[in-house]
Specification:
With 380 residues, the protein is an alpha/beta fold. The chain has three domains: 146 residues, FAD/NAD(P)-binding domain (3-Layer(bba) Sandwich); 96 residues; 71 residues. Helices cover 29% and strands 31% of the residues. The protein has nine helices and 17 strands. The strands form three sheets. Strands 1, 2, 8, 9, 10, 11 and 17 form a seven-stranded mixed sheet that branches. A seven-stranded mixed sheet has the order 6-5-13-14-15-12-16, sandwiched between helices. Strands 3-7-4 form a three-stranded antiparallel sheet. A hairpin with a 2-residue loop joins strand 14 and strand 15. Pfam families: Lycopene_cycl.
């Protein structure tokens, strides 16, 4: 039996794996590469959001965009335009339909195998990938398999959420305004807020999101919170739930590495591309995949967009506060949105702000929990 060695094997047909394949396909030598895509066949029931000042490479998959952002708390609320940024939404269904029905058939050099990788090793500059029914070989492996570290970071929270796609009988939503945080929900033992993305004046995705040590709530708990929030924010409005989405995202200060145990190149969550204090990852993953593809195609060196330096320091401070004092979350975010323009907040979250702007922003936040956390982390 003839042994086939692939030039590239991609483990994981999700957000990172597909974005990497898309960027690899832009390389001059793409058609000459033999590519293996290994998928466990488990679909993700979620969508992705990101903001930007220019078009994303997958802009054609954007379902809806918003020019204004809203923040609400029990004693403060504000809506602001975010130009030059625009906030975008890509539906999971649209994302996977494009790659499975359009992209893969248009690239016959990709062989798709529905199988879970049981073992991955490297010897003599060649990788061996073992599944339940077969063995494959590749010169390079990119993997988005995320495994919980044996020794996790000091601060480890879970951002978990459940949302309803609703349709109302009467128009109630402002179609151009996305509500990123509405803290007018019970805080209990975690940082909890509602998230509203209107697709029209009577259609929207409404989610309950929590930052907590618990991995997730029961479906009943999410649904009770969603029903209560909708009844209070849109009293008397009749609505139907068309579909749902649910998921969870790690929020950790774990020092991620670029390579896995066998020397494979890690992608997405496994490579630390999730912003530790927000859970946003789509744009960071896209940038990383572009860099990796260009480096593999020898068109330019890679620039790993992992959080480092002072931004990692900021993330650790906030993670420490949200872990040890979740009740402070409402106060921290309320003061942040009250005293800082939303455009500046997005620039800060993109890690593109100036040190002077950061000092000005942080000086307006409640200083006691940050100083306390600073002392604890310095001692640690």
């Amino acid at each position: 039996m003839r042994k086939t060695t692939y030039d590239i094997a991609v483990v994981g047909a999700g957000c990172a794996g597909y974005q990497l394949l898309y960027q690899l396909a832009q390389q001059p030598a793409w058609s000459s590469w033999r590519v293996l895509l290994l998928s466990d066949g488990v679909p993700l029931q979620r969508s992705w959001c990101f903001w930007g000042t220019d078009d994303h490479p997958l802009q054609h998959l954007v379902t809806k965009s918003w020019t204004d952002i809203e923040f609400q708390s029990p004693d403060f609320g504000q809506t602001q335009p975010i130009a030059p940024y625009t906030y975008h939404y890509i539906a999971g269904e649209a994302f996977f339909r494009y790659f499975e029905k359009t992209f893969l058939p248009a690239n016959p050099n990709i062989q798709v195998v529905q199988a879970e990788v049981r073992e991955l090793t490297q010897a003599n500059r060649q990788f061996t990938l073992v599944t339940e029914d077969a063995t494959f070989w590749a010169k390079q492996v990119f993997s988005s398999r995320h495994q919980t570290p044996v020794r996790p970071g000091r601060w480890n929270l879970s951002q978990h959420f459940r949302g309803w796609f609703v349709r109302t009988e009467t128009p109630v939503f402002r179609e151009h305004v996305a509500t990123l945080m509405d803290f007018r929900v019970p805080q209990q033992d975690a940082v909890q807020f509602a998230y509203v993305l209107p697709f029209s004046d009577n259609e929207a995705l409404i989610e309950i999101t929590a930052f907590s040590r618990a991995m997730a709530y029961t479906t009943v708990r999410y649904d009770d919170m969603l029903a209560d929030y909708i009844s209070r924010r849109y009293p008397g409005v009749m609505f139907s739930v068309e579909s749902t989405e649910q998921g969870q995202i790690p929020m950790t200060d774990y020092p991620f590495t670029r390579f896995g145990p066998a020397g494979e190149m890690l992608l997405g969550t496994a490579a630390g591309m999730v912003k530790a204090t927000t859970g946003y990852a789509f744009r960071r993953i896209g940038h990383d995949c572009t860099q990796l593809a260009n480096a593999y195609g020898n068109t330019q060196p890679a620039d790993w967009p992992i959080t480092t330096g002072r931004f990692r320091f900021y993330d650790r401070l906030l993670l420490g506060i949200l872990t040890e004092q979740p009740g402070m979350g409402l106060n921290v975010f309320s003061r942040l949105y009250r005293y800082t323009s939303f455009r500046q907040i997005l620039q800060f979250l993109d890690e593109e702000s100036s040190l002077l702007a950061e000092v000005s922003m942080i000086s307006r936040l409640p200083y006691v929990p940050f100083l306390s956390q600073l002392v604890k982390q310095w001692k640690h």
